Amino acid sequence: MASAERISRRRFLELAGSAVVGLAVGAAAGYAAAPPKEKIVYKPPPPKAIPTEPLRFGIVTFLTGIPSIAGVAGLRAAEIWIEKVNAQGGILGRKIEYYVEDETGTVESRVEKFKKLTIDKKCDVIFGTESTSTGLAYGPLAEELQQLWLSWDGTTQKGLEETLPKPTYAFRSIYNEAEAVAGAIMVAKYFPEVRTVAGINDDYSYGRNCWEAFMTVLKHYIPDVEPVIDLWPKLGETDFTSHIAAIKAAKPDLVFSSFWHGGAATFLKQAAAVGLFKETKGCLCTAGGVLPALKKEFVPEGIIIGCNSFYFKWTDTWPMLTEFVNEYIKRYGEYPVYEADHAWFTLQAYKAAVEKAYAVKGEWPEKEEIAEALRGIIVPSLSGFRGYREDNYMICDFFQGITKHDPNYDFVLLDPVERISYSQMCHPPDVTFHEWVKSWKAPGEE
Predict the structure, then answer these.
(1) pLDDT by residue (tens digit) across 140-191?
(2) What is the CATH number of the domain that holds 241?
C-alpha cells in the first residue's frame, strides 16, 4: 500500500470520532424539526482478506561462545512460542516461518546478517541480539532499512542517547544499567554497613556503564562509600586469579560485578578457591543470567545475585510461567534464564500489536502501523505483565535476591528474592540518568 493511502491509528480514531460527533449533531437538529423516520447505523467496511503466505521472522542471537548461555535460552523460548502459536493457527491465521543467525562475529558480520534477513529472506520483523555493539549498529540500520527490530538486550543509556534518540522501527530492551541500579538498591538495603567497594567488570561499554551507575546510586544511599579498586578484564577472559588477588589485597567490604555470561561462574569458582567471599560481601547484579551454572559447591550463601527480568521461581501462581518452565525442562533438561523472558515478551508484543492494528485498520497493517501499535502496549509474559514505553523502550521489573542453598537443587536459589520495579531502576524519557538520580530525595527525607 502506498504511504499516502495508509491511515494511522491516531488518524483513524480522529476520523471515526469526527464522524460520530457529526451524526450526533445532525440527529439532534433533525429531531427538533420532526421525529426521525429511520435509524442511521454506521457500518464499517468489511475487513480485507489477510495475506495467505506465512509470516517470516528473523532471529539474531549468540549460539556459540560465552554469551551463548543467554542466547540459546532466548532462541529456545522463541521456538517454543512459535510452535505454540502455529498450533493455534498463527497470527490472524498466518503461520510463522523463522530464520536464525548467530550473533557471534564482528559487528560488520552482524550488520550483514541483519541485511540478509531483511533483504534476502524478506523477514517481516527481526528479533534478538544481546551485545551492546550489535545494538548500536542495528538501531540506525533498522531505521535505514525500515525494518522492525525488537531487541532482547544490549541497550546502554549513553550509546542510545548519542546514536538513536527517536527511533521509529527499532524497539529497544530495558536500559542495561538497570540491573546495576537494582544492585545498588539491594546493597543499601541488605548491606548498609558497606563503605568500600571493589569492582570487576568486563572492559567494554556495558561493564563500564554498570560500574558507574552502581557507584552513582550507591553513593546516594551511602554517601561515604568509596571504590578501592576497579578491574577491567577483557570480555571472554577466563583466568581471573590475578584480579582476585588484587581484590583480596584491597580488602573491600563488597565486591561488585556485572558479569552476565559464563565468566560469572568461572569468576565465582576461582574466588571460592581462595575464600574471597568468606572475607567480603558480594553483589553480582547479572550473574543470574547463568543461574543453573552457579553451583552450590563454589557459590556461597549470602551474596546478592541479579536475574534480570526473569527468575524461574518468582511465583507459583502465574500459569504461563509454570507451563513454560515445565516444557523447557522437559525438552532441554535444564532451567531457563532471563533471555527466555525477553524473547517471549517481544514475540507476544508483536502478535498483540498486529492484532491491535488490524482491528483498527481492517486489513493487514504496514510495519509503521505495527510500530505505532507497539508503543504503549502491555502484554503478559513469563515474568508478569510487560510492555513498551511511547519512546520504544521496554518496561519490565527485575528480580534480585540473596543466595541460598536448597537440597533439591545443585545450584543456588534466591531467598529472599525481591522484585525491583521498573520505575525504581529506569529514568523517564525526558531526563538523563544522572539528572534523574540527582532528583532523588536523600535517605530519610519525606
Answers:
(1) 999 999 999 999 998 765 555 555 668 999 999 988 889 999 999 999 999 9
(2) 3.40.50.2300
Say how many domains are in the chain: 3
pTM of the shown model: 0.86
Looking at the domain assignment, is residue 443 inside a domain?
Answer: no
What are the CA-CA distances from residue 228 to residues 12, 199, 240, 323, 439 (Å)?
A: 59, 8, 18, 46, 27
Could you list the residue range(s) of the whole structural domain that residue 258 is in? 178-308+400-438
Query: If DSSP codes are grouped into helix, strand and coil, which group holds residue 439?
Result: coil
**Claim to verify: residue 385 and residue 243 sit in the same structural domain:** no
Which residue's entry shows cell 429531531? 31
Q: 343 in a domain, yes or no?
A: yes
Residue located via cell numbers 467496511 = 45
Taking the C-alpha atoms of residue 383 and residue 88, their distance in angstroms, rounded to an integer, is: 22
Contact 396, 345 (CB under 8 A): yes
> Are residue 298 and residue 408 in the same domain, yes or no?
yes
Tell whether 73 and 168 lie within a shared domain.
yes
Q: Are strands 394-395 and 384-388 parallel, antiparallel or unpaired?
A: antiparallel
What length is written for the chain? Answer: 446
The per-residue pLDDT for range 113-141, each reduced to its tens digit, is: 999 999 999 999 999 999 888 988 999 99
